[in-house]
């Protein structure tokens, strides 16, 4: 019964407005994500915004502005863990970073709404949408440009298919060639290949690697009797 006596209609309406604004702005951000078929779409962004608004609104009612500030810090860290769940690593590629950042933005929008900062919430939502829409043509334009090995940080993967009985010998020869070219080895992966072979993938990190030098190393290795294939692939790091 205490809830009935403590009910504050004005405070209830204030909370309703805060949550409604967080819901609308979170839904707007989520609609763009859903339209592009991203992992965290319409419902997820709306829930993140509303959830952030609820926690900040609750803290504001219980302990004023000081409580809202305190809870906002926890909202930021909590959404960080949620966003980490959307990030996936596939080989040398990392996916979901933009989705995680968008969730973080939705939480910021909800926190602003929960603190009665409606204009700031709208402004934050507009900037999140702008980052995901207006900057997209610029990103696509940059991604279409050829990779410049002298100005970009590149991940180089040198792959060898060898007889499993000569694995140690090939690794020693490859290590010697890479040391000679001054290309440090960042990672090494060895996987079975067929019935009697192994696939050796050497990952190099260098911003000044010469494609002709990598071609030379691949040609030297493939010229050996126990090496079936040798090739390399570049890729930009995240």
From TrEMBL:
Keywords assigned: Cell inner membrane, Cell membrane, Membrane, Methyltransferase, Transferase, Transmembrane, Transmembrane helix
Domain MgtC-like C-terminal: 156-232
Every MgtC/SapB/SrpB/YhiD N-terminal domain range: 19-139
InterPro entries xref list: MgtC-like_C (IPR048640), MgtC/SapB/SrpB/YhiD_fam (IPR003416), MgtC_SapB_SrpB_YhiD_N (IPR049177)
Membrane topology of this protein: Multi-pass membrane protein
Gene3D superfamilies tied to this protein: 3.30.70.260
Principal location: membrane
Subcellular location: Cell inner membrane; Cell membrane
One cellular-component annotation, GO: plasma membrane
One of the record's GO molecular function terms: methyltransferase activity
Similarity field: Belongs to the MgtC/SapB family.
PANTHER family, per database record: PROTEIN MGTC (PTHR33778:SF3)
Function: Virulence factor required for growth in low Mg(2+) medium and for intramacrophage survival. May be involved in regulating membrane potential by activating Na(+)/K(+)-ATPase.
UniProt-recorded name of the protein: Protein MgtC
